[in-house]
Amino acid sequence: MTGTLVLAGTPIGDLQDAPPRLAEELAGADVVAAEDTRRLRRLTQALGVQPAGRVVSYFEGNESARTPELVEELAGGARVLLVTDAGMPSVSDPGYRLVAAAVERGVRVTAVPGPSAVLTALALSGLPVDRFCFEGFLPRKAGERLSRLREVAGERRTLVYFEAPHRLDDTLAAMAEAFGADRRAAVCRELTKTYEEVRRGGLGELAAWAAKGVRGEITVVVEGAPERGAEEVGPEELVRRVRVREEAGERRKEAIAAVAAEAGLPKREVFDAVVAAKHAQ
Fold it and tell me: What are the residue boundaries of the Tetrapyrrole methylase domain, all occurrences included (predicted)?
């Protein structure tokens, strides 16, 4: 008999949000793999529980090396509980490698549902929640970040991002450039904590606010692109937008892809407009 891997959601701020099953799993697991053992200790003290099993660290730095060890424990029948600092393991946190390896070995994987910064921010944002996509953390380098944002400029679903406070102003400024300064968004800070704040407004307005300095755990929710039809953006305008991007230093292929995403059109349609304009010269 193989064991069971349990992914446990932990509070994103207020420790009272911990689900009752979390205490039971912490007390009964053979192995508790924690992203930060010190934070785990604070959590167990708040819950009034003492792990009976072995506690090991499992974080980005040792995830690759420790995964095989934990899989062997699981294959031998152990119940392994995986917890990260906040929220659900594997969602922008360690866990994916272990889940994939456990599934490959035929190990049962289950979860203790818990608080989620993604869903909490989405619900508080005031933006549409019927369809959304989670984009996680953006690249740190400015060029890569802007390129990634331009890829989803035409995405009509609400977008959810995580960001570090010291990069928030640059990220919001890049979003304003890629999506438009008036695109609605919400910056959700310190969710469920004492100084919780949800700041709503246009991306340009939020970028100016963030330039003054922001602290805490940040989740950004951005409104999806408005519905646009091909009739609203004619070939001449498409060519003009591509030319503007090329003059700013983008390669033509990237510029066409970005303009197509903004207009909600197939890349081929923008490409054809550019080629037709060139032949007409």
Answer: 4-207
